[in-house]
Design brief:
The chain has one domain: (Glycosyl)asparaginase (Glutamine Phosphoribosylpyrophosphate, subunit 1, domain 1, 4-Layer Sandwich). Helix 1 runs antiparallel to helix 2, helix 2 packs antiparallel against helix 3 and helix 7 crosses helix 8. The chain has about 325 residues and is α+β, with helices and mostly antiparallel strands. The protein is built from eight helices and 16 strands. The protein binds aspartic acid. Aspartic acid binds next to strand 11.
Length: about 325
């Protein structure tokens, strides 16, 4: 995956009413869309994801365009990134914690408000699928660490070593340079958060990550926590987050954004308010990144972040676009 570039701001407005199933053939991967203008009708299905996760939105789109459910699209999309060894921020090949262990966090929410999550799970390459199993096969909503791994194995998932040679080398280099201090900055995170609406208008979401690179052992971020890294209310919409998990957790960011949409804000306005909530509560905001993406029941969407450089991948009407997010701080 291409690491973030500092990009110019773009405004995202939205699409308006009327649910129309859309299937088209033109596919332009990563085509840039600087401005989303309002159209006369909402067009579903649609899938949006944090960052330039074009392969993931494509995989999700393939499920949606065949008439599949949003929950299956989310799993297909997230698994694509989890399997990508070149992506050092999600799943297999993810950067380890400061002790050299790859620990994964993921959660999923469905149209019925169902929620499943795994946190700090090792040795299993597809935490999004394990999270789904937690949601569908257990009376619980979250499993952690060894228990999550054991459950995954019982469900037929294979144990594997998730630390690639490249990630191991980078970690060894980091150890020398950093004196073993966990670092917090704006470059070591690129979680995939994904929101999808299927042709029936039903919304699901997923969020999966290896978390902040070189974090302390046992550290859990926002990504797998309901209301923080992800929240879906099928009557209203959904939101998901990337960036400094500690700040998203403290402001329960994704829940906040969905509640703001419930009160009538557009996804764009709600994302901007979510970011403002963070920057007004932490004067250190210059030193970390947080980005949000949200979608409402009408298919309107928005995104916003603290620093330039965030953007979202969208697949709609058979066409993939990359939308640069507006930001609170503009690069000089
Ligand atoms: N939000 C993630 C975390 O704090 C990091 C990321 O976005 O990659 O674990």
């Amino acid at each position: 995956m291409e690491r973030r570039k500092f990009l110019k701001k773009a405004s995202v407005s939205g699409l308006a009413l009327a649910i129309v199933p859309a299937i088209a053939s033109c596919v332009t991967e990563g085509e840039k869309e600087n401005k989303v203008t309002a159209t006369s009708k909402t067009i579903v299905p649609v899938v949006v994801a944090t960052w330039r996760f074009h392969n993931a939105t494509k995989a999700a789109w393939e499920v949606l365009e065949k008439g599949g459910e949003s929950i299956d699209a989310i799993v297909a999309g997230c698994r694509t990134e989890e399997a990508d060894l070149k992506n050092t921020t999600v799943g297999n090949g993810g950067a380890p914690d400061r002790d050299g262990n790859v620990t994964l966090d993921a959660c999923i929410m469905n149209k019925n408000g169902g929620y499943g999550a795994v946190v700090c799970m090792e040795n299993i390459a597809h935490p999004i699928s394990v999270a789904r199993k937690v949601m569908e096969e257990t009376p619980h909503v979250m499993l952690a660490g060894k228990g999550a791994e054991q459950f995954a194995v019982e469900q037929g998932f294979k144990r594997e070593n998730l630390l690639t040679e490249a990630s191991k080398k980078a970690w060894e280099k980091w150890k020398v340079k950093s004196e073993y201090k966990p670092i917090i900055n704006i470059e070591n995170h690129d979680t995939i958060g994904m929101l999808a609406i299927d042709k029936h208008g039903d919304i699901s979401g997923g969020c999966t990550t290896s978390g902040m690179a070189y974090k302390m052992a046992g550290r859990v971020g926002d990504s797998a926590i309901i209301g923080s890294g992800l929240f879906i209310d099928n009557k209203i919409g959904g939101a998901t987050a990337t960036g400094m998990g500690e700040e998203v957790l403290k402001t329960v960011g994704s829940y906040l954004i969905v509640e703001l949409m419930r009160q009538g804000r557009t996804p764009q306005e709600a994302c901007e308010e979510g970011v403002k909530r963070i920057v007004t509560s932490n004067p250190n905001y210059n030193n970390f990144q947080v980005g949000y993406v949200a979608i409402n029941k009408k298919g309107e969407y928005g995104c916003y972040c603290i620093h330039d450089g965030f953007g979202i991948s969208k697949y709609q009407e058979g066409k993939q676009t990359y939308i640069e997010s507006g930001s609170y701080i503009k690069k000089a």
